[in-house]
Design a protein that fits this description.
Oligomer: single chain
Order of helices and strands: HHHHHEEHEEHEEHEEEEHEHH
Strand content: 15-25%
Number of strands: 11
Number of helices: 11
Distance between the termini: 92 Å
Radius of gyration: 40 Å
């Protein structure tokens, strides 16, 4: 009995004096470990008689329980004291600004889409959309492109193996022009729309990708002529590039869905290795560059749209959104638009609040 009392007193005294968690753990091992003094007492029970073992076992278990409880209580006290000391020494200044949270950025294509929508909305154009999986009638036939036209070839167009319920071949649209037919059939005339969206062609290099973005415009009204087209394109390009010195050159061309057709060139110069749109291409140090195709809507296309070409006339134009972004913001490889490289996005991406407005500027200065 005296041995357990003295051992308990010794254990309680050392536990109470322990001022660190490491020292407390050393005492735990010394008393309760496999080779500890209390564990040694428990091993002596094997040499006792049943009566002695019953009486001694109760005392030894009570000793072990009391020491274990004392160690647990002291550990809680030491941990609490350590926390109090840490809180006292490590203060938080709530007046400091919060750290910047990770934010994404707007892709240049999305930004330019918004810029174009803002510019054309100011000129009275509505945004029209259509399916990206299209039938060959809307994509080709209704746009005066016969079955012998090269654009219908498999090497240019992604066809699906199945036809629709009317037996028409299905494909990924090669331009947004089918939206023009769908809009005429649905809305009639007069009509003033732009049709932005994804298009697909079997082509891939530094300036072409199998999927890219296009915007087309269509105006159908009475008394429309080529002068209206030129003014619209000139106003659009000046607003987009945010320069008043944009000079256009219209060159005769051929498109099956317009007649007459014109390619639209703009003057540009080379500055620090990049093309900068502005000025006349005939000026010294300048040249001409084609940026879009356009023309007066072909009579057959107006008929396919359900309208009388003797009563209604119109013009149409189209250009690549990705190419416009490259010209305005100094990008030199179209494939990088779709690589998913975060470094590229951090360099060329736009903040979510960079919303284009005509009063505040449709873009960011190059």
């Amino acid at each position: 009995m005296a041995d357990t009392d003295s051992l308990l007193a010794e254990a309680l005294a050392k536990i109470a004096e322990a001022d660190t968690l490491d020292l407390l753990d050393q005492h735990r091992v010394a008393f309760l470990g496999k080779k500890g003094s209390i564990s040694a007492l428990m091993k002596t029970l094997g040499g006792m008689s049943p009566e002695e073992r019953s009486e001694a076992g109760a005392r030894f278990n009570a000793l072990r329980t009391e020491v274990a409880d004392a160690i647990a209580a002291r550990k809680v006290a030491l941990e609490g004291a350590a926390l109090e000391a840490k809180l006292a020494s490590e203060t938080l200044d709530l007046s400091l600004p919060a750290p910047d949270a990770a934010t994404g950025s707007v892709h240049p294509v999305s930004q330019v889409m918004d810029e174009l929508a803002e510019i054309f909305a100011d000129m009275g154009f509505a945004v029209a959309t259509g399916p990206e999986i299209e039938d060959d009638w809307h994509n080709f036939t209704a746009l005066n492109m016969p079955e012998s036209h090269p654009a219908r070839a498999m090497h240019d167009t992604f066809y699906f193996p199945d036809a629709d319920e009317q037996g028409r071949s299905m494909l990924l649209r090669t331009h947004t022009s089918p939206v023009q037919i769908r809009s005429m059939l649905k809305e009639g005339a007069p009509l003033r729309i732009i049709a932005p969206g994804r298009v697909y062609r079997s082509d891939s290099d530094a300036t072409h990708t199998p999927m890219f973005h296009q915007i087309e415009g269509l105006v159908i009204d009475k008394g429309i002529h080529l002068g209206h087209l030129k003014w619209t394109l000139e106003t659009f390009l000046k607003a987009f590039f945010e320069r008043d010195d944009i000079v256009l050159r219209l060159r005769p061309s051929y498109f099956p869905f317009t007649e007459p057709s014109v390619e639209v060139d703009v003057g540009y110069s080379m500055e620090k290795g990049r093309r900068v749109v502005g000025g006349s291409g005939d000026d010294e140090g300048h040249a001409w560059m084609e940026v879009l195709g356009s023309g007066m809507v072909n009579r057959k296309v107006i008929e396919f749209g359900g309208l009388d070409p003797d009563e209604w006339q119109g013009f149409a134009f189209g250009t690549g959104v990705d190419r416009l972004a490259m010209l305005k913001y100094g990008m030199d490889d179209l494939r990088a638009f779709f690589d998913g490289d975060l470094r590229w996005m951090k360099h060329y991406g736009f903040a979510a609040l960079d919303v284009p407005t005509l009063s505040g500027g449709v873009g960011v200065s190059a």
